[in-house]
Amino acid sequence: MKILILNSILRTSEKNVIPVVDSIKDCMIYNLGLGFKNLGHDVTLIAAEDYKPSGNEFYDFEVIFQKTSFKKLFRTGVLPLQLGLVSYLKKYGKNFDLIISSELFAIPSFVAALISPGNTLIWHEMNIHPKLLKKIPSRIWYNVIVRAFFQKTLVVPRSGEARDFIKQYVTNISDTIVEHGVNLRKFVVTDKKKNQFIVVSQLIPRKNIGSIIEKFHRFLSKYNRKDFQLLIVGKGELENEIKKQVETLGLQNNIQLLGYKPHEELGKLVSASTAMLVDTKQDLNMVSIPEAIVCGTPVITNMVPSTALFIRDNRLGIAKNNWDESDLNELVENQELYVGSCIEQREKLSVESSARLLIDNFTQYKPEKNSR
How far is it, in rounded angstroms, from Cα 79 to Cα 9? Predict the structure, then answer.
């Protein structure tokens, strides 16, 4: 198949500041493109130019960066506007067997649903209205635009929560949930774990890193686990504050702030860890969670991420609000059970598996739609 992927926003921005990076090859959507390519399909990805990397790099398939317009109104970190997409789809849209666009609340999805409704699939992950302007733009979009223009376009949810949210506005929803896939070539698996936990996160307020450090501190003291380490991978505005917290608690020998790590190195660190820890205040979808699972590394998280129920129901770690030091110890004591459950899920969470499911959903839906 000839497949077009529309995904304007390649990375999460903080306060509408687009992070400058050397490469996009660690982005979830780029690796999904690789999944399609590995299955033998011809892939093109279109993204907003604002997310173009600083360095020149070779891509495994065609990547097009389109200019964005009217940035004060259409913020590039939230709802970018690519005027060139209209002419591109009018000229080339019919050449693609399948167009996959991220999110119902996205201008590229609207353009694709208008111009190429017959070969467009919306891969949707949001399960709440974004807080921007007191949720008013999102509520208008779903109640007016989505109800009026997306009823002939298949929507595939990325979680059960996303499906429950969007069924208020559309009826053409797939029964199959297609999760974010992981490039298994970059994330190796092992059941041999070191006495270490890992956090993979921007060092920003909503990630709640300070809370994780406090819980880790109590775990060391209560269970006499002085040999355990906590690795924190990532950078951000709270780095100095976190360093001070570590010093105040006297944990310099137990906590390492490692900064940014490329995917290959990150995969090795995650794979060697007893668990990945999450206590986010806001993030619904975290690519780092399935990346940990395919490494055979369980996840301890609160119920905010949309994968929390998946983790709980499949014993891929511990998912509950207000998890604490006892949960860290529970996972250490029963490590073999949780690690084994993660390894069982590895192939199901590959980018190839996600790509195959998206194609299967589309091909099953299309005959039904054309018979109406």
Answer: 8
- What long-range pairs does 11-20 form, CB within 8 A, spacing at least 24? 11/51, 12/202, 13/76, 13/77, 13/78, 14/202, 14/204, 14/236, 14/237, 15/77, 16/75, 16/76, 16/77, 16/78, 17/77, 18/50, 18/51, 18/76, 18/77, 20/54
pLDDT at 367: 53
| Bridge partners, residue 47, by sequence | 65
- Specify the DSSP element, H or E, that contains 266: helix 263-271
**pTM score of the predicted model:** 0.88
Of the chain, the percentage scoring pLDDT greater than 70 comes to 98
Q: Alpha-carbon torsion 122, 125, 127, 133, what sign?
A: negative
Rg of the chain over Cα atoms, rounded to whole angstroms, equals 21
Q: How far apart are CA 203 and CA 234, in angstroms?
A: 6
Residue 92 to residue 163: CA distance in whole angstroms = 30
Using an 8 Å Cβ cutoff, are 8 and 80 in contact? yes
Q: What is the pLDDT of residues 273-301, one digit of tens each?
A: 999 999 999 887 788 999 999 999 999 99
Render pLDDT for 206-252 as a digit per residue (tens, 0 to 9).
999 999 999 999 999 999 999 999 999 999 999 999 999 999 999 99
- Amino acid at the residue 13: S
Q: Per residue in 300-333, is it b (16+ CB within 10 Å) or e — as a string? A: bbbebbbbbebbeeeebbbbeeebebebbeebbe
CB count in 10 Å sphere of residue 107: 22
Q: Which two tokens stand for residue 109?
A: 């999805």
Please report, as a single letter, which amino acid is at residue 228: F
Other beta carbons less than 10 A from residue 226's beta carbon: 10
